[in-house]
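Final paragraph of the annual report: two paired records, presented back to back.
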Amino acid sequence: MAQPSSRPRLTSRTRVLLKWIILVSCMAIAVTADLLTKHWAEQNLKLGEVDKILPFFYLQRSANNGIAFGLFGGHTYAIVAVNIIAFLLILAFVVWWRSWVLAGISGGLIMGGFLGNLVQRVSGQKMVTDFLKFPHWPNFNLADLFLVLGICLIVLGLGLEVFQLSRPEKTRGDGG
């Protein structure tokens, strides 16, 4: 006779609900942290001035009217359109992905990063404030960091799913 599991199994409906709660929470935290730190940088750092925090980490405010590394500078409407399309693709991916915890966290981080930069871009500034800097690396902000972390979590999660699918049937989990 099989031993009952000590932890209760979540229903499919509960997992879906939790996925969206996690996503909205992570997105709200990411957008808030990004916009607050950008506001702080705009109020406390002069444009272009370098404030060395650690030997390998600086604060240096810059205005970026492009995307990563300043690419496509000055094409605000195209950047906003691409951001909206990417946002919708990530939303569809979160709906599809069965790993509800990773889907919620990664989707929330990515969407929060998109929204943090989008809010600044469409608020009349037509640029984003970057202020974090490593030597020999372009300036970035928390939105960029959240985007990268979310994408890394997706890659990690998909890698784990591929690994699980390659294992024999009896050892697979339930995706949560």
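The closing record of the year follows.
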Amino acid sequence: MTYLTGLALGISAGGKLHQLLGGARFSLVHTLPGRRRYQHDDLLNNQELAAEWEQHLIRVKGINTVKVNPVTGSILVEYSCQEEYIDLVMNYLNELHKRPGPRDDYGKLGVNIRSLCRRMNRNVFRNTGYTLDLRTVLAIIMFVCGTAKIWKLGQRPAGPQMVWWAYSLLKGRC
């Protein structure tokens, strides 16, 4: 990798990380007792997100009306609960919005990996007469390989590390 390629990759990753960690947030534009107007950059010209947030917010106990305007990127919330509760709800909605969804590429990869591991675990469990699961089989393999490397080859710390991994996998299973 050249210096320029590494620099471009670092800038791209940094931008995504900033968007994920800091990115767009709710900003409180105006407040009156029982009424608040927020602004969020991701709402601008995003009808789907506006409809989704409106559906989520209207179901919250204590929130009376919600009006989301994708043209201006604003949310008008009228409520009859405490101010701190509204702050918690809006912070939660912001955190929820930052997470990748199951339809995102990142979310799909995680879902696919988890479902593959669950299928493998079920197959191992069935094929061993319902006595071993995938976690236990991997722990046994790591324990045997680690112990063999310690005794036969005198390797350290690779062998003890495998034993520790095996212990960590089995911890809490008794």
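Residues 19-98 form a domain with the Alpha-Beta Plaits fold (CATH 3.30.70). This concludes the annual technical report; the extension proposal builds directly on these records.
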